[in-house]
Amino acid sequence: MKAKLVGINHVALEVGNVEEALDFYGRIFELTLRGRAGRMAFVDMGDQFIALAEGRRQEPDAHRHFGLVVDDKERALTAAREAGAEVRGNDFRDPWGNNVQVVDYRQVQFTKTPEILGAMGLDELPKTDAAKAEIRRKLGPDAVS
What is the pTM of this model? Predict the structure, then answer.
């Protein structure tokens, strides 16, 4: 029997400078610094985190990206634009060439527990009908109300 994927614990993102990355991403998202180690900073994302690692070693990404789930996609994209990011559709590129796709929590098929949402100050963040239908298809008719 194979192991089942449960979720993502964290993503390590290479940046040119950790302080500049904290400033850049802090203009787009509310950041809570979990800690630091050497040339890395760890930022909480609910029950997960993102690691910002100093020392970008590759050219800007053309197609590779990662998706961040937010409570308000349009607000995040507007903030990214205001922070100087190149924004295309639901994606933006940070100053180090990392592509970030912004996804609205209400529209995705995964859920957070009420305790995690509450701790994040997101008590009221209802799923769209399409997201609820996808959850029901995967987990059964009583999975979400």
Answer: 0.86
CB 105 within 8 A of CB 49: no
Copy the structure tokens of residue 24: 């850049």
Q: Which of 65, 135, 127 is nearest to 93 (CA)?
A: 65
Q: Are 113 and 120 spatial neighbours (Cβ–Cβ below 8 Å)?
A: no
pLDDT along the chain (145 residues), means of 10: 82 94 96 95 91 87 86 95 96 94 89 83 84 85 76
Domains and CATH numbers, the chain: 10-56+64-104 (3.10.180.10)
Percent of the chain residues topping a pLDDT of 90: 54
Tokens (6 digits) for 57: 């070693």
CB 51 within 8 A of CB 11: yes
* pLDDT (tens digit per residue) in 25-39: 999 999 999 999 999
CA distance 110 to 101: 16
Could you give the strand order of the β-sheet that contains 65-70, starting from the edge strand earlier in sequence?
65-70, 99-104, 91-93, 86-88
Integer-rounded Cα radius of gyration of the chain: 16
